[in-house]
Amino acid sequence: MALDEYPGEEGFIHISEVASGWVKNIRRWVRLRQKVVCKVLGVDEAKAYVDLSLKRVNEHQRRAKMGEWKNEIKARNLMGIVAERLGKSVEECYRAFGDALIERYDSLYAALEDCAANPEALKDWGGKGWVPVVVLVASENISFPSVSIAGSLEITCPLPDGVEHVRHALEIVEHVGEEGEEEEEVSVQYVGAPHYHVLVRAPDYKTAERILTKATQEAIAYIEGNGGKGKFQR
């Protein structure tokens, strides 16, 4: 089998390294021209091939490696767009700056991802004409995943100016979102007094949970400190 990460080399998987149990039908585990992730066991210089194992790669490792491979395919395609806009060949672009980006970031996709997240990532190369083109192509074609979580916030205040206190408590919730990064967002939706729907969008669940907890706790602390009551439920 051909090895993408070792061009020109051949790999070999012994039947005992295909699966942990008895392999009755090899097509259940691997098919012709299928892209698979394997672990390198060793290099047989005498036979000129690399010994591989399919069964020693867990699902997490497989997904991670396939993700890397797909990202690099995308990065090469984006380099083609950059080359077209610069009026150069892809090979010329690699020689001019692509190889340097790979050396700095370890992969071309990592370089483009950084450019998409931070337009100033290549500011030390700012004098180069290719920099704004790379940054623009990256920002146009690379988006970052986000997650959303929500909960129900109940706030009441029996004081004469209780409505103002409730309004300020809800402003506190949204203000916590404004303090975060650009990709973090907190919104409050009116359900029916005293119930409000709090929605948090963030790059990952850990960050989203942290923001949701902080926003609702600060709002409840404020309303309880001003004669009211607050309760939050997921």
List keywords for this structure.
234 residues, four-stranded antiparallel beta sheet, Alpha-Beta Plaits, flat, DNA polymerase, domain 1, three-stranded mixed beta sheet, alpha+beta, 3 domains
Level-1 CATH class name of the largest domain: Alpha Beta
CATH architecture annotation name of the largest domain = 2-Layer Sandwich
- Give the total of beta strands: 7
C-alpha Rg (nearest Å)? 27 Å
> How are helices and strands ordered from N to C?
EEEHHHHEHEEHE
Number of helices: 6
The general outline is flat
Query: Distance between the terminal alpha carbons, to the nearest Å?
Result: 51 Å
State the CATH topology of the largest domain: Alpha-Beta Plaits
Short description:
The chain has helices at residues 59-86, 90-105, 108-117, 131-141, 162-179, 205-224, and strands at 11-13, 39-44, 49-53, 147-156, 185-192, 195-202, 229-233. The protein is α+β, with helices and mostly antiparallel strands.
Can you put this structure into words, describing what you see?
By secondary structure, the chain is an alpha+beta fold. It has three domains: 11-56, no CATH class; 60-141, Orthogonal Bundle (DNA polymerase, domain 1), CATH 1.10.150.190; 147-233, 2-Layer Sandwich (Alpha-Beta Plaits), CATH 3.30.70.1130. It contains six helices and seven strands, in the order βββααααβαββαβ. The strands form two sheets. The protein has a four-stranded antiparallel sheet, covered by helices on one side. A three-stranded mixed sheet has the order 1-3-2, with no helix packed on it.
